[in-house]
Amino acid sequence: MRIVTRADHPELQDEAAAVFRERWPEFIFHDEVPKKYLGRVEEHFGHFDVMALGDDGAVLAGGWGVPLAWDGTVADLPSGYDDALVRAVEGHEAGREATTLSFMAAAVGAAHDKRGLATAVLGELTRRAYGKGLSHVIAPLRPTGKHRYPTVPMAEYATWTRADGLSIDPWIRTHQRMGARVLGPAPSSMVIEGTVAEWESWTGMVFPVTDDYVVPDALNTVHIDVERDRGVYVEENLWVRHA
Q: Which residues contact 90 (CB under 8 A, 6 or more apart)?
């Protein structure tokens, strides 16, 4: 296995995108903030966008992050994924000095689970962060088991542990084993809005009346307002800080 930047291998863009896409529900790709900022992320921060390649050159896993200004306090954390993107891009363009790398996403191809690839990718991003003189590494985690408990607040879910003291959640455990500790919820990490028809298309569900709905793979409920023809999903994530 070798780790390379995605910018150095543009011929693998589609393959890398497929690895990421298979790990998230369709509605995640309809957040308006990334649509405005991801092009500038690629332009400014290609050093922090990496892929793990197999011996045959196939994409096994990938991950990326953004450098941003953070003073090390919980009060100064971004509100989540969207806010971290905005702070990183606008801060860079304003000449503000970054202090911190925020992991934004990591994914492993479904055929390559249980091989430690996520840890390898995150470890490489961490090495790159410290190599660039950044002081902190944080992440707004999207816990992989939280969708089973969409009505439970993230602050409570984060306290649920196994007998060994680690989280019940596999993705939180991955970060804990790398030395991360929980800082607290990212209350408005992503906000996704659409018409009722769009939400029905994204989820394969029918929303006949105005209500809060439990949607497959959503970490929180989705509010559907039939009268206004609007669905709004505010996703709560979990901030962690790596040692």
A: none
b/e for 36-75, b at 16 or more Cβ within 10 A? ebeeebeebbebbbbbbbeeeeebbbbbbbbbbebeeeee
Domains of the chain and any CATH numbers: 2-187 (3.40.630.30)
CA distances to 29, 61, 109 from 54, rounded to whole Å, are 27, 9, 11
How distant, in Å, are the alpha carbons of 7, 49, 131, 145 from that of 10? 6, 12, 24, 33
- List, for residues 59-86, the tens digit of each pLDDT value: 888 999 999 999 999 999 999 999 999 9
195-205: per-residue pLDDT in tens?
Answer: 999 999 999 99
pLDDT tens per residue across span 230-243: 999 999 999 999 98
Rounded CA gap, 70 and 67, in Å?
9
**CA dist., res. 212 & res. 2, Å (int):** 45
Give CA separation, 5 vs 127, 149, 162, 236, in Å. Answer: 14, 36, 36, 29
Of all residues in the chain, the percent with pLDDT exceeding 90 is: 81
Question: What is the number of residues in the chain?
Answer: 243
